Amino acid sequence: MRIEQTELRDAGRQLLGDLGPGTNTGEALAAIRDAGWLALTASEAQGGLEQPFEAAAWLYLEIGHAISPAPLLPGLMAADAINAAQGYAGADEWIGRIAAGEPPAASLLCPTEAALNHADGMLSGALAMVQGAGSASHVLVAAPGIAALVPLDRDGVTVTPHTMWDATRELAEVSFDGVAIEAGDILAEGKAADVVIAAATTHLHFAIAGDCVGSATALLDQTVEYLKTRKQFDRPLAMFQALKHRCADLKAYIVAAEAMYFDGLAQYEDGTADPVTLARGVKALCSATFRDVAEESMQLHGGIGMTSEYPCHLYFKRALLNEHLASGNDACEVAVGQALQKEMAA
Q1: Per-residue pLDDT tens digits for 233-286
Q2: In the chain, how many domains are there?
Q3: Claim to verify: residue 204 and residue 339 sit in the same structural domain
Q4: How many CB atoms lie within 10 A of CB 241?
């Protein structure tokens, strides 16, 4: 049975309204666990709610809307990766742990770009922009040729928190110095790992895209409200035609990005397009839209938009980071272009 989208969106907005910037990550994790979000896409046989990916997509929009640090993405992305690992004996156990509020940490950068080297059962290199490392027991490692869940307390693993310009999320670097990969850690190897990596990559790009659409929507709403209250020449700024046109343009950009987001999700659910290429294209448009909205909103707020008293700077910093999470926008556009060239040449 599908949860009604409006009910899920409203419940998400209500919960995340109390989990905005500055919320302790552990508190946010406990809240989304108690709400059942970490079991959202798991099958009923695994103790989950067996909802389609679109249900998670709505929550990613609401996390962006609240610019919340809620670490939903590592858990649901790891669950997708685990379920994509055919024959992995520990799948049900791990899905249960995720649903119970024990998700592994995961990098928010594209797995295919990870600076890792796996040879002779040893792992070296580093994962940057890892979310959830402060509370997790394991980290999802997805790199060419291997997908694994590696304990963070194993010899050779070091967790170093990033000093973040974006204050709305806590991220870290996880480095591996000759870390032994045991048989029980491995989800898949070789070509089987490519399937796991594709699942994680697709989920990650759609999640960041949803975060961008939700954030851009909230910021434009706040900007319009500000223009209604701020006066110049005894008239609200919202009455000035030039400013109306700028806001209307931003609304059009957001509506287009949201339409592409949900159309991309529909194609993903239907299996009518290559999921990785599709997700990259959606992410590129949505994150570029968020950046444009953030830049314009700061301008529309005037000088006060640059101050810490107003939240514009939080959205702006999140927008700049989102451009580089998953795959950078340039890399996304190149990948989509190459896929189109192959399709046209076929």
Answers
A1: 878 877 888 889 999 999 999 999 999 999 999 999 998 889 999 999 999 999
A2: 3
A3: yes
A4: 7
Same-domain check for residues 205 and 264? yes
Q: What is the CATH number of the domain that holds 148?
A: 2.40.110.10
- DSSP 3-state of 278: helix
The residue with tokens 């949505």 is 286
Element (H, E) at 161: strand 157-161
| CA distances (Å), origin 73, targets 40, 96, 143, 272, 292 | 12, 16, 18, 24, 24
**Same structural domain, 111 and 98:** no
pLDDT, tens digit, 9 for 90 and up, residues 37-90: 999 999 999 989 999 999 999 999 999 999 999 999 999 999 999 999 998 999
Query: How does strand 146-151 pair with strand 171-180?
Result: unpaired
Q: Which of 103, 123, 154 is the last residue of a domain?
A: 103
Let me know whether 5 and 134 are in one domain.
no
Residues spanned by the domain of 308: 192-345
The C-alpha torsion from 214 through 320 and 323 to 82, rounded to 10°, is -70
Q: Which of 253, 255, 278, 259 is nearest to 268 (CA)?
A: 278
Distance CA 156, CA 144 (A): 21
Residues 229 and 310 in one domain: yes
Q: Are residues 252 and 331 in the same domain?
A: yes
Rounded Cα distance between 108 and 206, Å, is 12
CA atoms of 114 and 134, how far apart (whole Å):
20
Counting Cβ atoms within 10 Å, is residue 194 exposed (0-12), middle (13-18) or buried (19+)?
middle
